[in-house]
Amino acid sequence: MLAIWIVAMIALAPLGGKLADETVDDTESFLPESAESTEVVRILDDEFAAGETTNGIVVYKRDGGLTPADERKIAADAVAMEAAGAEELPLTEPPVVSFQPGAPETLAAADGDLATTIVTVPTDFESSADWGKFIRDTVEED
Q: How confident is the model over 85-95, as pLDDT tens digits?
């Protein structure tokens, strides 16, 4: 009986790849045609150059408080992300970085232990994992 299941799995495995090719994972496909959210998605796509976007949050933490060296690293990471180019990380706007001029004070914790950087990318469910890996690799480098 086990051999029949193994043969069936091998025979049906290629169909799984074909299903993935036909799957639509965008926000609009989950909404009713008449929903206001559907109209918002259309307006975002038609009227705004960036279209529908997703924010990522990079969190930096050091117990006892982030150091000036940490702050320089946070700024350097943002520069590296922005310089990466659209193939690696297609930012729709520059990162919003803790401790930088014009950045909201709320990006860093009041006790100084935690700071964040906000990155904005196009909504793309197929590529977001790769972009997240690129960001992790960028911030983990010393």
A: 888 999 999 99
Contact assessment for residue 80 and residue 86, using Cβ atoms and an 8 Å cutoff:
no
CB 34 within 8 A of CB 86: no
Read off the tokens for 18.
Answer: 């074909």
The rounded distance, in Å, linking the Cα atoms of 51 and 43 is 8
Instruction: Look up the domain containing 88 and give its range.
Output: 52-142
Confidence of residue 1 (pLDDT cuts 50, 70, 90): very low
Is residue 4 situated within a structural domain? no
Domain count of the fold of the chain: 1
Helices (H) and strands (E) in the chain, counts: 4, 3
Length of the chain: 142
Question: Whole-structure pTM over 0.70, yes or no?
Answer: no
| C-alpha to C-alpha distance for 107 and 20, rounded to whole angstroms | 38
Give SS3 for 91: coil
Within-domain flag for 2: no
